[in-house]
Amino acid sequence: MRALQELFPEISEQQLSRLVQYADLLCQWNQRVNLVSRQDVTRLWPHHLLPSLILLKIFPLPPGATCLDLGTGAGLPGIPLKILRPDLELVLVDSIRKKILFLKMVLDALNLTRCLALQGRLEPNSAPPQLRKNFDFVFARAVTSLENLLPLARPLLKPGGSLLAWKGESDEPELRQAARKLGFRYQILSVPSRWHHLSPKFSQLRIFQIFPED
Predict the structure, then answer these.
(1) Residue 205: which of 187, 195, 190 has the closest Cα?
(2) What structural domains and CATH numbers belong to the chain?
(3) What angle do CA 130, 165, 162 make, to 5 degrees?
(4) In 3D, which of 171, 174, 138 has the Cα closest to residue 156?
(5) Burial per residue of 87-101, b for 16 or more beta-carbon CB atoms within 10 angstroms, e otherwise
(6) pLDDT value at position 125?
(7) Closest Cα partner for 153 from 135, 167, 168?
């Protein structure tokens, strides 16, 4: 909790309470639905919540941005980001019904508005009409390879929109290879060293911003 308040000294009591409630609900449901690995249940904050939220310190998400969390699983990174940035318009998508039931329960329990959980398996280079070209950003954390991810994200993005993929330093060669093969622009976001002590994930974490329409 101290790490969260060091990163976000402006966090409100309501936001802090919602994050704690979300973490508690995730732990409870994880006993019967595989939301995160069992060894990570006791490390939710440093391994999952803080690495999700760090985006807000290293990337300027515009006010009111429309975002889709692809393969969201337990709602990461989407729900923590929504809690700290309630202005975001967020859609959470996953193919597994039990995970969507969990997410709908969380949205209701936390009273998160302008946020929707949808069950579905997106197809490469195709998207349901209500989602097609509808988003400024697609989030993807621990989903699939970049070559597989890009055809899933592309039809969801508005012109000029971008994919934000949570990866690691070891994935940078994959990024460069995919960029050469598929012909996209990108930038690599990393966590400043002054915050590395707050999470064991921070030193290796990379968030790739990919512009698939170029």
Answers:
(1) 190
(2) 2-211 (3.40.50.150)
(3) 50
(4) 138
(5) ebbbbbbbeeeebbe
(6) 83
(7) 135
Residue 142: name the closest of 122, 167, 163, 172 by CA: 167
Which residue carries 């940078």 as its tokens? 172
Q: Using an 8 Å Cβ cutoff, are 147 and 177 in contact?
A: no
φ, ψ (nearest 5 deg) of residue 121: -110, 110
Q: Which residues contact 162 (CB under 8 A, 6 or more apart)?
A: 136, 137, 138, 209, 210, 211, 212
- Residue 117 pairs with which residues in a beta bridge? 92
The string of pLDDT tens digits covering residues 137-179 is 999 997 888 999 999 999 999 999 999 999 999 999 999 999 9
Q: What is the pLDDT of residue 195?
A: 97
Give the burial class of 41: count Cβ atoms within 10 A of its Cβ; 0-12 exposed, 13-18 middle, 19 or more buried. Answer: middle
User: For the chain, how many residues are written?
Assistant: 214
**pLDDT of amino acid 214:** 52
Question: pTM above the 0.90 mark?
Answer: yes
